[in-house]
Design goal:
Structural class: alpha+beta
Shape: elongated
Order of helices and strands: EHHHHHHHEEHHHHHEHEEHEE
Strand order of the largest sheet: 1-7-8-6-5-4
Radius of gyration: 35 Å
Number of helices: 14
Strand content: 5-15%
Mean pLDDT: 80
Helix content: 55-70%
Oligomer: single chain
Number of strands: 8
Length: 450
Amino acid sequence: MATAYGPDTRDRLASGRSAGGRPPTKHVLPAVLRAPFEARTWRELGHVLLGLPISVVLFCCAVTMVSLGLGTLITFLGVPVLAAGLAVCRGFGALERARARALLRLEVADPAPVRGEGGFLSWVGAVLKSGVSWRHLLYAVLHLPWAVFAFVVAVSFSAYGWAAFTYPLWHWVFPAYVGVDGIQLYGDRTHQVYLDSPFELAVTSGVGLGLVLVTPWIVRGLVAVDRVMVLGLLGPSRLATRVSELESDRGVVVDTAAADLRRIERDLHDGAQARLVALAMDLGLAKEKLDHDPEAAARMVDEAHGEVKIALQELRDLARGIHPAVLTDRGLDAALSAIASRCTVPVDVVVDLDARPAQAIEGIAYFTVSELLQNVSRHARATRASVDVWRTADRLMLQVTDDGRGGAGGSAGGGLAGLAERLDAVDGVLVVESPAGGPTTVTAELPWRG
C-alpha cells in the first residue's frame, strides 16, 4: 500500500497505483488507438463544443453591461450597473467551473463570495473592489476568441476525419443522388478529378483514419488551455488559497500544542507528581518513627532515596520528550543515534548534512523519526531498520525503512495521519509506501529554513 500526504500530494499516489489504491487497468490496444473511443475524448470534445455558445452569451452580457455601466458612470446608475455586470460574470464563472468539473474532471475551488457589511451599496462596493470579479470579466473577454478557434479546429478535424474514414461506406450517395462519381478533388472547365476508384477510396479512408487518431490529442491540447484559464481566472487567488491553508495549519498547530500540553500534564500527574506525593508521605512516616524506631525509619528513608532516583529519571525522560538536550547541543546526527539505540531492532543511521536547519525544523525532524521508530518497535515485526537524512536544495529529507510485515496505513486519527498533519503545518510532506508483506518506507520532506 502506498499513501501520500501533504499539500503537494493530494492528487498523486505512489507509482503504479490508481486513485482507489488499485493497480492500473491493463489495455491490449495502445493509447493512440484507444483515444478516439474513450469517454475522456468525447467529454473533452463536448466541452469544446459547449464552450462557443456559452462564451458568446457570456461575452455579450459582460461587454454590454460593463460598457453600459462605464458609459453611465457620470450618473449614479452606472455604478450598480457595472457591479451587476461583474456579478453576472461571477455567475457564469460558477457555470464554467461546474462544466470543467463535469467534462474535464478539473476540481476548481469556488472563490470566496462577496460579502458586504450590510445593505445594497455595501454589496456594490464589495463587488467592485473584488479582484475575483475583475478576473471573471477578463475571462469573459479572453475566452470568446479562444472558444471560436477551439470550436473551429475541433469540429473541422472531427468532421473531416470521420467523414473521410467512412467514405467507402457512403460514396455511393454521389452517383445515386448527385449525378457525379464521388467527391470532386479538382475541377475546371475541361477536367475533373473525382475520388471514385477503389485505390482512391482506400487512400481517402487511410487519411481519414490518421485524422481520427490525431484528433483526440489535438482536442486535449485545446482543453489544456481551457484548464489554465479556468484555474487562473475563475478559481480563488493564490493569496486566498495560501491564507486558507495557513488558517488550517494554524488550527493543526494549536491542536497539536494543546495535545502536547495535555500529554505533559498527564505524564506529570500520573508519573513524577504521584511518585513525589508518595515520597513526601513516606518521609513523613519516617520522621514520625525516627525517635522510637530508628531502624524502620532508616529503611523508609532508603526506599525514599530509590523513589527519588526513579522520579528524577522520569523527569529526565519527560524533558527529553519535550526537547532533548542532545539535539540542542550536538544536532540531528547524535540525537537520532540516541533514538536508534533505544529501538528494539538494530537501526542504521546515516545523516549527511553540511549545516543545521532551523531549530523548529530540526525538532520536527527529530520527533518524526522518533515516532516512526516507535511504530517500528511496536507494530512492524521487523528485524532491521534504517534512517537516512540528507538535504536537497532547500528541503530536508528523512527516510525511515524497515523490513517488517508492511501494511502501514494512514487511517483518519491514526499515528501516521497525525504525523502528516504536523508536517503539513510547516509545508512538509509525508509519503508512506508499505505494501503487504513489506518492506515499509516512510519519506518525510521538510523546508530547510536554516
